[in-house]
Amino acid sequence: MKNFFISALAMLSIIGCLNGIINYFFLWENNGKKYCKQYIENSKKIKVRVDEKNFDEKFGYTNYLKYTIFYKGITGGSKDYMFLDNYTHKYFKIMRFDIHDLSITSGQISQIDGKELYIMVNNEEINDKSYGTFSNPIHVFYYKGVEKPIQKYWFSREENKIVYESIEPTQKEYEYNVTQYLTYVMTAKMFKERFDKNKS
Predict the structure, then answer these.
(1) In sequence order, what E strands does 9-89 have?
(2) Is residue 13 over pLDDT 50?
(3) Residue 69: predicted pLDDT
(4) What are phi and psi of 58, to 5 degrees?
(5) Is residue 87 within 8 Å of residue 48, measured between CB atoms?
(6) Are 84 and 91 in contact (CB under 8 A)?
């Protein structure tokens, strides 16, 4: 029995080491957490009006592999919503990461069309003419309604009234969205050019 436990422990150790090697050498990720604050501080608030027209790729998903546990892939992803701004005539893409409550993203779709929003955009993207196109939209990780909060609502039988709940990203979600984007979605080349360009 003792030999069995020793063998099992040795096998688990080997599997753990191999799993660590796979994560270290084959799953690349940027140090997004380190530069999240810098990205947000280099952003500004602008007002947009969401165009109501539909087009291909308006709704999408971004999926990626985070790491493996005993060779099982652990994935993450975002629910994406791309829109054309009636004021700047540029394309923007709202990305909300690891949202498990589908009523938030479905409510977002039905509530922001045709609405004015205050959005936070990174200065390097909004000032770069290569961004804002259909194929390369400006990323949005935080927004607020201009006239009133963007809310989902439903009728509560218990309270016998319509209940409203904000679906706007919180500050905590904003920081999480930025961190996930920088870590897993932004290419290593772009990340290095933007954040590591001053390093020798």
Answers:
(1) 43-49, 59-69, 72-84
(2) no
(3) 52
(4) -65, -40
(5) yes
(6) yes
Token pair of 33 as six digits: 């957490």
Q: Are 116 and 88 in contact, with CB atoms under 8 Å apart? A: no
Give residue 198's Cα distance to chain centre: 26
Per-position DSSP letters for 70-132, written without gaps between them: TTEEEEEEEEEEEEEBTTT--EEEEEEET---HHHHHHHHHHHTT-EEEEEEEHHHHT-TTSS
pTM: 0.79
pLDDT higher than threshold 70 for residue 158: yes
How do residues 38-85 score in pLDDT, each as one tens digit? Answer: 999 999 999 999 998 877 778 888 887 765 454 445 677 899 999 999
B/e letters for 48-63, b = 16+ CB within 10 Å, e = fewer, are bbbbeeeeeeeeeebe
The Cα 118–Cα 169 span in angstroms is 12
How far, in Å, CA of 74 to CA of 64, rounded?
A: 9
Q: Where are the domains of the chain?
A: 29-195
Closest to 86 measured CA to CA, from 107, 112, 125: 112
Instruction: Tell me the pLDDT tens digit for each residue of 72-86.
Output: 456 778 999 999 999
Cα–Cα distance, 75 to 64 (Å, whole number): 6
CA pair distance 68, 72, nearest whole angstrom = 5
